[in-house]
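> @MW can you paste both from yesterday?
MW: sure, first one:
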Amino acid sequence: MKYVGMQTQIWRNNRNTAILLCMYPVIILAMVFAFIFVMDYFGLTCSFFGDLVIDSATGSTIASACRDSARLRTEAYGANWPVIWFCFLKALPFTIGVVAIWFLFAYMFNVSLIRHVTHAKPVERKDNLRVYNIVENLCIAGGIEMPQINIIDDPGLNAFASGIDIKSFTVTLTTGLIEKLDDEELAAVVGHELTHIKNRDTRLMVVCIVFVGLISLVQSIFMEVIKAMLRSRPRSSRRNNKNEGGLIFIVMIVALVGLVISSIAYFFSYINRLAISRSREFVADAGAAELCGDPLPLARALQKVSDEPGLAFVNRNDVAQLYIIHPDEEDDNGMLHGLVKKVNTIFSTHPDTPDRIKILEQF
């Protein structure tokens, strides 16, 4: 009965993760579509972008699509669906290309960024025989590739897994964790991190961070455009002033629309990322309990880590979400109760530690 419950927990969280992961391309495409829809609704697609986007197959522009559309509106505002779909399909390859380039750079620099901000140092068997043997034995038992082992000189108790492929997979432990946990508890924490590696959660979280970061970049670009427009002043002749002022006004409207839509998309993508992160923590807890053959050492270890999570010097939330327990969230949850605490959990990268311990104890 204990084994079935654990497997059910893993299956449910894997299913939820797959559903949530599919939300990212939906959010990005919805953001692009919503931007085009709003622009067209207020008559800006044809008037502003019409001569800029050319159909390579027919040589026609959005403006000609507007003129030829049977549903071309005569009123000031309204949706012209043929034009909207025309623009969306034209924007689709460009959107996919930008996402692909962003992913490439993120994959290249993710591992080096984590090492830099955490000041982690690699260790070999001769440097710490106890830790190396624990990791190696669990890898053999679970059929997991042996990762690099890193240690951070920090008196707090914490650990995390990172990496995007076999060469870069790493388990990082603090000195405080190694010194203050017994062998069973330390093995349970290592088992949790190895489960992340086995399930490729570290790669999954890079994907989540990349998607959220891309939408955040778009949001920042629109914000900078608005700032630039506010600093701009029409110069030269009165006629040029009028023309330049009209152009600035249109660009400002476009940037405001983009900022609002990208902000909404960022909110949903960020919430989605947090939900995936919490789901994977439950899976890793269950996997560690199964790998070690006993869930109670991990329950004890989580309690100790929550009392002193450490790693406060790493002032990056995208890195901190990899930890077995997020230091800032643990401090915040300790001061919250009831409904407020449940709402706060929605904006957390990790499940509430007491909930994790209860689930482990019921196995």
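MW: second:
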Amino acid sequence: MKSMTAFGRASAVRDSFEITVELRSVNNRFLDWSLRLPRAYAALEDTVKNALTATGISRGKIDVTVTVTDTRAVSETGAPVLQPDLDCARRTVEAAALLSAELGIPNDMTATRLMAMPGVMVPVRNDQTEDDDVLWARLEPVVADAAAQFLAARQREGERLGADLLEKLAGIRVLVNGISEKSAGNIAGYREKFEERLRALIGESGAVIDESRIVTECAVYADRVAIDEELVRLASHFDALETLFRSDEPVGRRIDFMLQETNREINTIGSKCSDADIARTVAEVKSEFEKIREQIQNIE
């Protein structure tokens, strides 16, 4: 079992490029991608999606952020490395010489002053266009590392959720066993209560109680409130849920379906049993199942 909420991050320096890949996700009914890539890597969006999907990510809203920094263009302090724009520098020098000649003023242009002029010193840029295969070869190992950390986080959180769900299911089994015992006791005691009510109604009239009628009434009542079939189906649903809670496959949707079926059986039991204690226990069971339903919204 895996959670849909997780975070994974990986960084590496490859071919003088510092690459960082971050993955974060929240729950979603389907698989919804949101990718942010540097402009030079934009054509790799589908490649990144396919690579991540191949790792087993099948559900959730996944945000992927990729940053790439050319380390040759950044100093040890993090400041950009500058280089002269010679075309701009020449035009600036020529403009200074023209002004000096036309206006009759000294030309005091020096290299130091020239470097301070706007546009003369610019950040180092890698203007070389690289093939998509080269870019992906550079990016792929970092994406794989981030995905591994992301999936490990999903697995850890999923294991915690699974343990909590198994504990809740065990508690529900105990409650349902209590319903079964109370229901059997109610049916067994119905004949005695029915006879008492009948005798009270007849009073001292001296009328003879029809034993066959009592048997018939008890049989009708037992058939009306019998929950044996519902209990058998519930036990089967509980076993299926326990198997799903222990599974390593994406099971969120299947668990949701099984909870719907289980809730239907619980509602049927509640409608059949008029006993106040059973009604309270049914309400408690439904409350516990609602807690499970809330939890599985985060399961892949």
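> thanks! The chain is about 60% helix and 15% strand.
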